[in-house]
Each structure stands twice: as structure tokens, then as C-alpha cells.
What does this fold into?
Amino acid sequence: MKWKPGVGVERTWEIARKEALQVFRDPRARGLLFGMPLIQLMIFGYAVSTDIRNTSTFVVDHDDSRASRDLISAFAGSGYFRIVGRSDRSSDIIDALDHGRAIVGMEIPAGFEKDTGNGRGADVQLVFDGTNSNIATVSRGYAEQILQNHAASMVTMRPPIDLRERAWFNPELKSRNYNVPAIVAMIIMLICSMLTAMAIVREREVGTLEQLMVSPLRPIELIIGKMLPFAAIGIGDLVIVTAIALLWFKVPFAGSFPLLLLASLFYIMAALGMGLFLSTISKTMQEAFMSNFLIFMPMILLSGFMFPVSSMPRAFQWITLLNPVRHYLVVVRGIFLKGAGIGVLWPELIALFVMGIAIQAFAATRFHKTAG
Amino acid sequence: MSKARRILPDPMRLRAVARKEILQLRRDARSMLLAFAMPLLLLVIFGYAITWDVRNIPFGVIDRDQTRRSRDLITTFQSSGYFTLREYLDRPSEIAENLYKRREMIVFVIPPDFSRDIDAGRQAQIQAIVDGTDANTATIAISYTRAMIQTFALGNIRVSPTRSGLPIRAQSRVWFNEELKSRNMIVPGLVAVIMMIIAAILTSLTIAREWERGTMEQLAATPVTRLEVVLGKLLPYLAIGLIDVILSSLLGVLLFGVPFRGNPALLMLMSFLFLVGALGLGIFISAFARTQLVATQVAMMATYLPAYLLSGFMFPISVMPGVLRVLTYVVPARYFLVVTRGIFLKGVGLHVLYVQGIFMLIFSVIGLTLAVRGFRKELG
It folds into this structure.
């Protein structure tokens, strides 16, 4: 028989069909493929919020005057602080912070009304539980701001410099708008890489991979056939996540969907390639899962998903350049929030394309060696 | 059944099951890697690389004033360490482009009459345009900006001829994590997350594997009781988990300088209770799922993700919507996190943490019961 170049479309299609059947036949796996994006969306849309409001505050008021009550209601009325308790003993603050009942303690000194009235000025003690450094940093900013504004209003003075700040792209500074689009990156990586690796390794574990190898099927056809269903699921999840982000979470979508689709295809290529590569270094499904997990965690952490790349040390910033998730996130967020086009996003698109091709080529070569 | 049912596990059989599990684990290099390299990897990444501490925010300036005062203001920003000057812009139209390309995070516009207004005692204005895409960083950048402007105002402006300052002065102090390092908040929390990885991901495979390989029938045919199987499978992972707690605590303290102010023995006791519960849950999931693929995915969704996201590890529970907030009460990691942070940073003892201790105890009993129960259902 003569060796024919190219890829047999029919044989590839048959493999893809078989794989799709296998995936969708198991009701638990079926539920997983569509349930997982939904659960992740709900968790990330609702739980993963870095907006800081309603910080629990304990007030010790030694003055108990009109002035001190005005100050306390300025705090409570801001929406940033929730008064969880008040007393007139300083030690209660220590107790409340130790037990975690409050994160902020405010102590108003005796003679507060008198000192603020006669121009001497009063010192208000603010104590923050630094255990969660992020909450402490942000609420300290809010607290000092509220105190300052309140003080200025007492002497009917305007602050000497008026700062007008505006946030572009996300005017209300909702962390949801930042996090929800990024879920696409996580889900595609999980589905395309993990499921591809497991699907191939399953054949190896059960022993059917050898049968496939002696059939007229060519390795490249096997690879493409195996990957097609997961690529389709990845695209499906992209559409689902985008739809829910827009319709349910009201995340703005300022850019072009075709551009997002193009970038996603490159990214899916890279994710599938990673799955293929992991399948070549794993003998059992357990190994495949473990290695996926080992690689997946650092990739997500070093992608800018939750922790800004710009705050990382230089060396790590360089490392993140090799991480497709990082580039894809820039594209996704740029398209969703900024409406950025090719003119801005071309470096990321090129990086994704190159990585997609390179990872695929590398993994396919290895697959040939280990399987053929 | 002629023989009376044994309640207590037989130590010999227990050892046999545990030995088999250890052998299987030892042979599986990648599980071992996950058990011991993963905690190290996470510690290094969280300790060195990622942080929420915002430093060196790149900023741009449109300085229409071009006076000593406006330059002083820019210097105040630059020398604070929170901001890094990227460039001076000429036209407002450049702002959009630079924010699109993420060259700058924040751009200040100083109007032409800035220093004239200050000298005349009028209110001067400054505009700040922030890239709000990353809401958290943007919020912090804005609050730093306010602080910088206040610093500048104090040094350059007399509030009024008669008064030396505003009537209220804020005296802020931070406790437990005095320098506000996100590392100090993350390392103790990481201990909880690592334990969940060990417990859920590693054990989720153990029973599903027996099902898939068909060794379950063989196991069922032996005289080993359910409790013996569950305990035998649990013991090796318990040991790994406790070693990981010690390892990551030591590294956190020695390498990253995280304070450890409480009682190490209390930490070990609480970790033990937490691990028993989490491992039991992992075995239950494994018995229920039957295939390794489903078991791992369910384990991730049911234990690992909640431990990460719904425990208060990084995201404050207080701002979650009501339904989710209620849900966090059944996330065991939530209680364990209070324990680790309490012991590491606050140095509190059992008189504060007894509530969490009771929850841990309940959790471990539920976990074990589920594991034994779930196992029986499959065998019958």
C-alpha cells in the first residue's frame, strides 16, 4: 500500500465522532462539562470579590457626645463600615479584634467634642486587623478619608486640593467586571488540556491505543480526531460564559466578538497541545491528572488572573511571558472592558499564535515517538 | 452471620491495608510530587512572586502648570515608592491610547492655574484618570493618590491663618500584620489550601481506582471490614498531610519571615482534626464517583475550589451575597483558616479558638461517617 500524504478527513471525523460519543455517553461527565462553567461563573461572579464594603467595626466612645455620635454615623453611613458593637472600655477593641468579631477598631477620646470645638483638635485612634492585608490597606484609606472629610465639614472648610478621579473602562470599579471574563481562560485550559490528556491516556491504559496504532489510521488523524470534540466544547463554553457574563452579570462587552473568537482559537490550540504533551508523559489517568494539576496551578497563579503581573518581581514577570494564559487574559479583558482592537492587541495575538503552533508541534513530535 | 460483627478495627488488617496504600503511593511518582513538591511550589509562588501589595504603579502626568509646585507634587508621588513616573504627556488625547496599551495605570492632569490657586488660598484642582480594569489595584492606587495629595497639601498649604490643622487627626495603627504584607496573610491560609489539595485530590482517586481496575470485588471478598479499609487508606495520607503542615509552617517562618505567635501543638491538633474530616470527604467522593475522571473533577469542585474561594483565604466573606455567605458556614476551610491565622498572626489560644475546634471535631466525625457509609453502599 502506498503511503498517502495529507490527512484523511473521513477517518479523522470517525475518531472525533467516537470520542464525542464516549464523552457524552457518561451522564456524570456530561453534567460536568456544562455544570462546571456554571458553578465557576457563580463562584467567581459572586464570591470572588475584592470590593471592600461593610467592614465590621467596633467603636469605643469615651466621649459619648453629639460630636462623637455624628462621627460614628458618618462612618456607618458611608457604606464602607458596619458598626458591630460599641462600648466605653478600651480593652473591648483588643477583644473584638482577637476574636475576629471586628476588623477595625475606632477609639474616640474623652473630651472629643470640647477639643474639636475649641481648635485644639482631637486624636481619634484607628486600629486595623492586618491579618487580611488587602482589607486593612483599603479600609484604612477609606477611614482616613472619612475622618478628614468629616473634620473639614466641621469647620466648613473645603479641602485645599480637590482631587477629581475618574476610572475608565470600569467606572464603578467592580471587581466582578475584571474576574468574570477571565473565567473563560480557566475553563478552556481545564477542559481542553485536562480532558484531552485523559482521553488519550485512557486508550493507553485500556490498551486500545495499540489497536488504533496498527489500524490504517495515521497518528496525525488520531490527534486531530481526539482534539476536535474538546475544541468544540471549549468554543461552546466560551459562548456560554460570554452570554452569562453579559446577560446575567451585566459585564460590559466593548470589543469585537470575532476577534475574541480568533484569539480563543489560538489559545485552545495551545491548551490542546499541552494536553497532548501531558498524555505523552503519563501512563495512567491518575498520572495525567496529577501532572495537569501540577502545571495548571502555577500557570493560573502566574497569569495575572487574580494577582497583577506588574507587582511581581522582574524575573517572574519575564517568566509569565511564556505563559499563554497571561496573554489570553490581556486579550479577553481588553476586548470585554476596553474594546481594544487588533491595533492594541497584536503582540498578544502573535504570542498566542506562536505558542499554539510551537506547543502543538512539540507535543505531536513527542506523541509520534512514544506511540509510533 | 455466625460471627459477631466486629466494631473495633483489627490492627493487623489495618496495617496491611495502609501498607498496600503506601506501596501504591510510593510507586506513583507523580502523586508523591504533588504531595511534597506542590506545597513548596505554592509557597515559593505565593511567597516570592505574587502579591496584592501595590507598588510602583506606573503613572503619567500632563503638567499644564509647569511650576516649582507642580514639580514638587510629581516628586512627592515619585519618592513615595508607590508610584513610578513613566512619562510626561502633552495632550489629553494621549491618555486613552496609553491606558489602552497599559503603558500607564493612572494619569494625573495638573491644570494651568494649579500653583496660582494655591498661592491665592483658593481650592486647587487635580484630575486623576485611572484604568479601572483591575478594580482592586485601581482602588488601592486611588487611595494612595489621596494620601499623597494630602501629604503634599500639608507641606505646602496653610489651612487657615488661625488654625494649625483640621480638628480631627487620625492615628492609624495596624495589628497582627504591622507592615501589611499580603505574604503574612497568605502563608497561614496556604496551609489550609495545601491540606485540601492533599486530602481531596490525592484520596479522591483511591477507591475509584479500585472500581475501575476491578480490584473492588477482590477487596470485597476479603474479611477486611469497611472501617478497616477506610482507616487503612486514610492513615498514609494523614501522615503526609501532617508532614506538609510542619514543612510549610517552617518554610513560611524561616524563609519568608511570617510571624508565628501561637502554640505549635494547638496547630497540629487542629490540623489533625481538619485532615481527618477532609480525607473522609475525599474517600466518600471517590466511592461515590466510581470513575477516576469524575472523582477528580468532583473533588476539585466540592472541596478544593470552596477551600480556595469561599473560605476567606483571599476574598472577604463579608461582601459576598447572602446565599453564598450562608454557604461558607459549611466550608470547613473557613474555620480552619481562622485557626491558622489566629495561631500564626494573632497568637491566640484555645480560649478564643474553641468554637472553631468544636466545628473541626464535628467535621471530622461527619467526614469519617460519610466515608464508611458511602463505602458500604457500593459494596452491597
In short: The longest strand of chain A covers residues 122-129. The CA atoms of residues 267 and 328 of chain A lie 7 Å apart. The longest helix of chain A spans residues 175-206.
